[in-house]
Write a structure and sequence with these properties.
The two termini are 12 Å apart. The chain is of the alpha/beta class. It is built from 7 helices and 8 strands; from the N terminus they run βααβαββββααββαα. InterPro entries: Nucleotide-diphossugar_trans (IPR029044).
Amino acid sequence: MPKTLIFSIAVNGYNLQYSANLKSIVQYADRLNFSRVIVTRPHFTALGIEVAWLKLSLILAALRAGYDWVIFVDADAAIATEAPNILECIDTRKAFFAAHGYSARINSGVMVFKRCTDSIQLLETILRHRNMSLPAQDDVGWGENGHVIHFSRQFPLLEILDQRWNNNSDPELRDYIRHYSAGPMRRHFKVSWPARLAYILCHYGLAAYTRLNHFICPASASLSPQLATLTASTLHRYPLFQTP
């Protein structure tokens, strides 16, 4: 049986707002006997929305550690109870799997990687060029998604997933993973007022923390050292990433 890890990242208050989604990821993993990790610490990181880069560092670490398959699902995405095993719905001769979002470009909110030299090199390339400016056709304004779009354009082992595996545009679709990312699906996400209030308080708390951190230590505003430190601390807190 292939060694498979599925994980999500829910820091900076995301664990409060998207607790039901995270539960669906855990249930999916347990039903299919996948290893799973929900990253909820540190509770705050000065990276803010750029914490999205952490997913690539952790995927790379897990592949290097020996997982045959690594699946990432954003915290704002919910997996349906009837969703099949995604590994039985793809061409396993490929190495990187992602669906198009509402922008008709790859959306990195749901990604699957097979362990092989090509997939590891793709991730290494993206991370190595994380500070590179992107052409307008690939740029999304923040995070790692634009770099994933850019560097996977010529990747021969890419398979575009059926929209049902990352639906962030069609509320009528009978999907497997419903992604409430910024865009058409966000207004369809329902959350309790206490959870919403807690998330808002975390949001403003994070903004204050980030400004204070940058004032005290301006060098910390740089993405690369922060990402390296956060990756190391996350791997220490969640050893399952390195123990298939």
